[in-house]
Amino acid sequence: MTDPDTLSVNTIRGLCMDAVQRADSGHPGTPMGIAPVAYTLWQRFLRFDPGNPIWPNRDRFVLSEGHASTLLWSLLHLTGVRAVDPDYEVLGRPAVTLDDLKSFRRLDSHCPGHPEYRWTSGVETTTGPLGQGVATSVGMAIAGQWLAARYNRDGFPLFDFDVYALAGDGCMMEGIASEAASLAGHEQLSRLCWIYDSNRVTIEGRTGITFTEDVAARFLAYGWNVTTVADANDLDQAARAFHTFRAETERPTLVLVHSHIGYGSPVEDSPKAHGAPFGPEGVRATKRFLGMDPDADFAVPDGVRDHFDHGIGARGEELRIEWEKRFEDYRAAYPSLAREVELMQRRELPDGWQEALPAFPPDPKGLATRESSGRVLNSLAGVVPWLLGGSADLSPSTKTRLTFEGAGDFEPDDRAGRNLHLGVREHASAAVANGMALTKLRPYWSGFLIFSDYAKAAIRLSALMEIPTVHIFTHDSIGVGEDGPTHQPVEQLAGLRAMPGLLVFRPADANEVAETWRIVAALRHEPAALVLSRQALPTLDRSRLGPASGVARGAYVLADVESGTPEVILLATGSEVALALAAREDLAAEGIGARVVSMPCWELFDRQPREYRDQVLPPDVPARVAVEQASTFGWDRWVGDRGAVVGMHTYGASAPLKQLLTKFGFTPERVSAVARACLADAGGHAPQQKETEGRS
């Protein structure tokens, strides 16, 4: 083989086969079948500098069919992508070495089973759950359009990058892909290109057993441009498709590629090629078919790396250097805008941003925390221009609309708008927000807490990737009232709290909301979920109670006994904090000293030194009662085996709020009774009445 294109494509195929065979695990067929198209994109079109893989105006490549990860690992290796540390300083070592490829799917290899953001440089987003990659790419494309509208000036095209996503049949079957494609078509995201690798094989067999729709017609109906590559091995056909994409100015583009899974292998187009190694003899036979040395494993023939260096390497470096020079001139002409770009890239905020946070005076009537959050959000967004977002068709209810002058709506005729209309698409909304965060904007999206279930996969990925996406949820409890069990979240808080790396906040009043935003706005490597009330909550009088700044430690003493050690501790979050305070007054009238602990963020409290945690929850006070209008799951850690939980054990009911609170025991009298029972169990005051409900 002397043709550099054929040699390079087959080198990619050989590395993919060998890596899967060495691991005895993985998917060899998909990367082999689509390798020519991916090669054409990278070598001829992708504006990406392997020497600086975080250059802000680079094209983005998302491998949505993440099971084909060896394709990406081979490309990162052959193009010489350099590693980047968490501080975004390019390091000298390669992102993917040949030894990494040889240890594919092994512990600590930079070639895990699916692409992992922050683990391997050159990976733009974590993929693996099918459909997530393409949906996330929509957020990247939205971010690109917004960045261009805000920062580009005549003679200074700072942002004009394209976003490519390689998807498979499984991606096209997932509902999230449909949600995202519909949104992308509406928004006319012309710099977005999905490459649909139609190899017609999934784990169970031929796609004909489950998937017979006309995908091209579907995307035409979404408002996409559709072009077809009839033969994945025809590099010229692939090149024409990408030229067609680049010429399109009003629609996103779907490149429908007909490929053969495991091209050239003895098990070509079979389910085995999709999900299992070929076997030693199968690998040898395939290499012979491709004209490769069947006895050479992990072979990179002479000239292949140089070929990539002279293609994507030279092109990407030249474009990146030109951009950096342009940015220096831009800085001289527009210093304040340039400063914004630099802060954004480091995930930092403008000086003095905390001064924008409002304070709320005591008010017995108070505000719903969704309302106070909306006010804080608007104040913050007024001083952080790259803080933007929207809702899954619920902004009037979630109070997440930015209303200050000039905020505007992000639409095809106004790319600088700060309000996104994401439609009734919770799953895509979360993934789109992730894509925006990966492009260094500070995005939020919102919906009702009950519908966080629809978005869980994307929320989980934000935590896995350690990106500061803000997930805002309102209507946080049975306080939804008449809407009934279908809309009353019960187990959702426990589910969110179970996610490692996700900070879950349920603030008790307007000032706890402001302090929550103080923490969330400054996050760089963690997502957060804000869980907010529909109903008004009293704004607490902090002259008599603990300061709301205690939110920063996850839990704090809100009200305490005048001296000594409390007899019982009442723990609560959100709307139930006021309830705990009322129960404390009832207990005080009986001579029982109770401490109230507001616990808005379990995760932050768990990170505090044991000394602080023991100060808030003294080990020698076993009488503890937690109060939360949600599943009791998880509270046993904080109340111990001598404590109790007043919580939900059903899915609620349809009725006015006050009737629900009485029915399910969220009253001062009930909490006081449970506290007395706990105290009696611990050898303290005897209860005035027998109380068994609510114990966990």
Please give a handful of descriptors for the protein shown.
696 residues, alpha/beta, Rossmann fold, 3 domains, 6-stranded parallel beta sheet, 5-stranded parallel beta sheet, 25 helices, 22 strands, disordered C terminus
List the helices and strands and how they pair.
Layout: H1 4-23, H2 29-45, E1 60-63, H3 69-79, E2 82-84, E3 90-94, H4 98-102, H5 132-151, E4 163-168, H6 169-173, H7 175-187, E5 192-198, E6 201-202, E7 205-206, H8 215-222, E8 225-229, H9 235-247, E9 253-258, H10 271-275, H11 280-289, H12 304-333, H13 335-345, E10 363-368, H14 369-383, E11 387-391, H15 395-398, E12 419-421, H16 426-438, E13 442-448, H17 452-465, E14 470-474, H18 492-497, E15 503-505, H19 510-521, E16 528-531, E17 536-539, E18 556-559, E19 568-572, H20 576-589, E20 594-598, H21 602-607, H22 610-616, E21 624-631, H23 636-639, E22 644-648, H24 657-663, H25 668-681
Parallel strand pairs: 1-4, 4-5, 5-9, 8-9, 11-12, 11-13, 13-14, 14-16, 15-16, 19-20, 19-21, 21-22
Antiparallel strand pairs: 2-3, 6-7, 10-17, 18-20
Helix pairs in contact: 1-2, 1-3, 2-3, 2-9, 2-12, 5-7, 5-16, 7-16, 12-13, 14-19, 16-17, 20-25
